[in-house]
Design a protein that fits this description.
Layout: H1 2-27, E1 43-49, H2 56-65, E2 72-79, E3 85-88, E4 100-103, H3 108-142
Helix pairs in contact: 1-3
Length: 145
């Protein structure tokens, strides 16, 4: 029971981080100048399965004998390599000689879809966590009788 709660908790933590990064992307949708210079670049969270570093033979025997999942973990935050948007605005302070401004590669529609996905994933992990908690409580009630 505890293992399933830990897996759900790791999923909730990663989805919360995704929501934070998505909110940061939306907040910087019009940022044309950052501390590093140039426009803001959309950020993405990279995720992988959280496994212990064990010899492969031990890992394989554990996998075949029983479920040993550890949940997931965020491995980093990377910049989206898609090209920046260019708009014509000669009055903008960051415009080049031809009057074009490089804008962030943040698409509000993509961010909203990602936000809905992260929210639904978070809710699914909460549901799984609560189900495991409920089963544990019911199991403890059996011993009372």
């Amino acid at each position: 029971m505890i293992k399933s709660m830990q897996i759900s908790a790791s999923g909730m933590a990663v989805q919360r981080l995704r929501m934070d990064i998505i909110a940061q992307n939306i907040a910087n949708i019009n940022t044309t100048r950052t501390a590093n210079g140039g426009p803001y670049r959309r950020r993405l969270v990279t995720v992988q399965e959280n496994i212990d570093s064990k010899p492969f033979s031990q890992f394989l025997s554990e996998r075949s004998n029983a479920f040993t999942g550890q949940g997931i973990k965020a491995t980093g935050i990377v910049e989206d390599p898609t090209p920046l948007k260019t708009i014509y605005d000669p009055g903008h302070p960051d415009a080049d000689e031809q009057g074009y401004v490089q804008m962030p590669n943040v698409d509000n529609l993509k961010e909203m879809v990602d936000m809905i996905s992260a929210t639904r994933s978070f809710e699914a992990n909460v549901t799984a966590f609560n189900a495991a908690k409920s089963m544990a409580i019911k199991g403890l009630e059996i011993g009372k009788r």
